[in-house]
Amino acid sequence: MSIDSGINNLLACHCEEASADVAAASEKLVPSGEILFAFICDKILSMKIITNSPEETQNFASEFAKNFTSKGVVIALSGDLGAGKTTFTQGFAKGLGIYEKIISPTFVLIRQHPIPFSSGTFFHIDLYRLEGKINLEELGLIDIFQNRENIVLIEWAEKIKEDLPENITNINIEKLSESQREIIIEQ
To answer: What string of DSSP letters covers 103-151?
Structure first.
């Protein structure tokens, strides 16, 4: 199994075949890390991965992004300051084919990037600076969420947890050491 097909094949494998595919993919995606998956037949419900460098985090995120070929996706990214949310986002954008520099939109709140060879747009949203009740309509987030052409990744999504659309992907990143991160993905 190649790196390019590693995670994509995991989504397509059957329950009884999952453990062999997971072992092969985890060795190629994150050679020195750990990956644990929970399956119900053909769908990954949760995933836990430990990466040992920013490069491993970006590589994993890049491969993970390739699962989002259909648009209309909202990803809620959470974790402490310095946990690696922007590092994950940079790798995710590369997986979508976006090679321009991805920087955190902390002060502008929202950055958008066209997805190559697609009519879709990748929205990178950072809610770190916002306090109190956040008006999604004033920020234009409702329109962004409702547009089925968009792929949306929100840093500090816990600030609008109760207002997020249904069927989102939650990703939590925890800093285990200076270079090691635990990434938990739940769908």
So the answer is: ---TTTSEEEEEPTTSS-EEEEEE-TT--SS--HHHHTHHHHHH-TTEE
